[in-house]
Write a structure and sequence with these properties.
Elements: H1 2-30, H2 32-35, H3 56-74, H4 77-101, H5 114-127
Helix pairs in contact: 1-4, 3-4, 4-5
Length: 149
Amino acid sequence: MILNFILFIISFLFMEFVAWSNHKYVMHGFMWSFHRDHHVNVTQQKKGRLEKNDIFFLIYAIPAIILIITGLMTGSDSPVAIGAGITLYGFTYFMLHDVVYHHRLPLFKNTTNRYLLAVKRAHDAHHRPKTADDFDNFGLLIFSGKYFK
C-alpha cells in the first residue's frame, strides 16, 4: 500500500522532468512542426479550436492508459499507481497550462493566487522569447523564483 503511494508520488514528480525534456528536446526539436502552432500569437489563435500541438496529449495519455489497464487486468497495483501518477500530472498540466494560462475554459481568468500568477509569468516568458533560440521555462510546475516577484 505505502509502496504504491510512493510510486504514485514519484511518477507525478518524475513527469515534470519528462514534460520539461520532451518540451525542450522533442517539441522544440524534431517535432517542432506539431508544436509551432502553439506559439502563434494568442490574438491569432482561434478560441476553442484544437491545435496540432494537442497531439502531444496522446504521447502522455497512452502510456498511462496502458499501465492502468495492464495493472487492472493482472491484479498488480504498481502499474495502476504509476499510471495514476502520470494521469494526475496530465490533469494538473491541463488545468495550469490550458485552463489557467491559455483560458481554454473560462476559469481562473482573474486569479490573485501567487503561484498561479507565477505560472502565468513563466509561461509568458516561454511564449514571448526575444529570439528563436531564447526559449526558456520548458517545465510547468518548477521554474525560476523570479516569476514570483
